[in-house]
Amino acid sequence: MKIRSFVFAATVALAMPAYAAKIPAALDPDKDGTVDLAEAKAAAGALFDKLDKDHEGTLDIKELQGRLSRADFAGADPDKDKTLTKDEFLAVVEQRFNAANPDADGTLDAKELNGPEGKALKKLLK
Ligand SMILES: [Ca+2]
Ligand SMILES: [Ca+2]
Ligand SMILES: [Ca+2]
To answer: Which ligand is nearest to the CA of 111?
Structure first.
């Protein structure tokens, strides 16, 4: 019994770095090898504050520095005031999260995060 759990622990320990290497640390603060929506939104909120250099509480397309295309920006800005509030920005994050999570299990694993939709989410949050 003891040996078996040791082997299991060692296998997990060996498997972890491979996972960790594939998921940006900022997206997986609890280091469980997956990104849940709360982690994605926390990272997005911190990024929003960092990019909002004039501290107006909104991001324009310049402040986003290429993270959203013009078309995606327009789609994310339903009130068309040419800026995204934090709520509007987090809505895009949630959309991309859901697009990257076809099994709807509440988390993105490394494979989901490295698929095309997962990459779009990572591009937004880098
Ligand atoms: Ca996690
Ligand atoms: Ca807006
Ligand atoms: Ca999933």
So the answer is: 3
Q: How many angstroms separate the alpha carbon of residue 83 from the centre of ligand 2?
A: 5
Fold for the domain defined by 2-125:
Recoverin; domain 1 (1.10.238)
Q: Please name which ligand lies nearest the alpha carbon of 108.
A: 3
- 49 φ/ψ sector (left φ>0, alpha ψ -120 to 50, else beta): alpha
Which protein residues have their CB within 5 A of the ion that is ligand 1? 28, 30, 32
Helix (H, G, I), strand (E, B) or coil at 84: strand
Please name which ligand lies nearest the alpha carbon of 84: 2
Task: Tell me which residue of 85, 77, 75 sits closest to 51, measured CA to CA.
Answer: 85
Where along the chain do its domains lie? 2-125
Task: Write out the chain's pLDDT in tens, 126 residues.
Answer: 555 665 555 555 555 555 445 799 999 999 999 999 999 999 999 999 999 999 999 999 999 999 999 999 999 999 999 999 999 999 999 999 999 999 999 999 999 999 999 999 999 999
Residues near 44 by beta carbon (within 8 Å), at least 6 away in sequence: 89, 90, 93, 124, 125
